[in-house]
Amino acid sequence: MDAKTGFFYLFSVVLLFAAFRVITARNPVHAVLYLILAFSQAAAVWLLLKAEFLAIALVLVYLGAVMVLFLFVVMMLDIHIDTVRKGFWKHFPLAATVGALIALEMAAVLMGGFRGMDEPKAVATALDAAGHVVQYSNTKALGKLLYTEYLYPVEIAAVILLVAMIAAIALTLRQRKDSKAINPSQQIRVRAGDRLEVVKVAATQKAAPEVPAEPAAATEEKKA
Length: 224
Hints:
mainly alpha
């Protein structure tokens, strides 16, 4: 067994263990962390298959954006674990049936869908008609395929994602009554008289009666 096969089995074992812990971990935060580990091992397997574009996309998109978002959402949500566990065995038969069906479908695709396919080559060299060395990259080939044959589906998907992003911002951007934000236009048009206003307030208590001052001679006699 060479080093490449050894790394493949290592990444595969860690991937299967992390995927198993995703569905068995009791703490949701731990489940998300195991899912991040599973994605990283899947990216390593893609690198072994010489599909570097898919590996980098998996790391940047899922590990760098989606999973971090999931982690922060799970950490901010007040999830009651006891309430979630109450309905586990109630929905377990349906979940087990759906899981077994998905596993069978994936096994059928993996067993019959990749027969007779050669190993993908990341960079291959060849000679053109003029005798120059030409390099081929699967990333370059994938880019050409996306922006030539599948140009319209890619543009439609981009427009749909843009509309979804604008809709999410529009739904969450609401003016709160308890917000202390300052409108810059109103702040510029403010006048000095608007900043300070003197208000006369009526007295709530009566003033104390004034005591007449005694003469200085009477004060000295009292002291004597």
